[in-house]
Amino acid sequence: MTGPSSIQGFYRHSANCKIKSIILMGKMTPTTVKAITLDLDDTLWPIWPTIQRAEQHLYNWMSQRAPATAATTSLEGLRTLRQQVETAHPQWKHDLSAYRREAIRLALRQAGDDESLTEEGFSVFFEARQQVDLFDDALPALERLSARYPLIALSNGNSDLQRMGLKHYFQAAVSAQNFGVSKPDKRIFHEAARVSRQNAADILHVGDDLQLDVSGALQAGMQTAWVVRNTAQKNTGSQNVQPQYTVTDLLQLCDALGC
Fold it and tell me: How far apart are CA 226 and CA 194, in angstroms?
């Protein structure tokens, strides 16, 4: 994901809108929303099919450019190595690209291939990682939401909205990689509020993860909408974390906002 971009035209999109609840999770009253922060992975597109496809592209590249690595390391082995890097370097948890680069470097080193190929391999993975399959509701919802509100992308991932062709829907993007801390840390939510030029209480954060998105945003003083696309996801809920709104897709949220 790219860093914060221009918020030119912000006031043109800042019309207030009263929320109508779809599923009421707790005692609350309709609240004015002046901006929306939006999670990306698993909110606009399913992330794991994307990662699996990108890993396959990386492995295919290794077969051509680092044959010793491909011969001694399976695709599953690369995934295990990535997990080991994450365990060994918790200080990088805000930077998923750093985890991936280090995993590629270690795979090359262990096989005796040239470690200077690391960046080339990462570029192959990263380019494929941007080829996402949007949920059916994503584009029409982005059209409706961005016509009414300034949208701020707020993600722990390393999506590049420019490469995806989605940047024009967003006034700005705040990523954990660029900011230095990840959700659910309230500081990254406050950074998104700063970029939007709105108070946290006037922002609705929308995301799929109950802890990273809903709990984090609530602790930062924002309103929240939990996107629950399947029953198994909803069963992960906690009575201690109560979003103001729960929807099964983003078009339901648009209807609730009157967009």
Answer: 22
CB-based contact 34:198 (threshold 8 Å): yes
Provide the pLDDT confidence category of residue 126 given band limits of 50, 70 and 90: very high
Cβ neighbours for 116, distance < 8 A, ≥ 6 positions apart: none
Q: What would the mean pLDDT of 98-104 be, rounded to a whole number?
A: 98
20: tokens are 């109508």
Using DSSP, state whether 227 is helix, strand or coil.
strand
Kind and range of the H or E element at 142? Answer: helix 138-148
Instruction: Tell me if the domain spanning 48-130 has CATH number 2.60.40.10.
Output: no
Lookup result for tokens 């309103």? 223
Give me the mean pLDDT over the 60-82 stretch: 96
Which numeric CATH code is attached to 35-45+134-257? 3.40.50.1000
Backbone angles phi, psi at 6, to 5 degrees: -60, 145
Same fold, 35-45+134-257 and 48-130: no
CB 18 within 8 A of CB 148: no
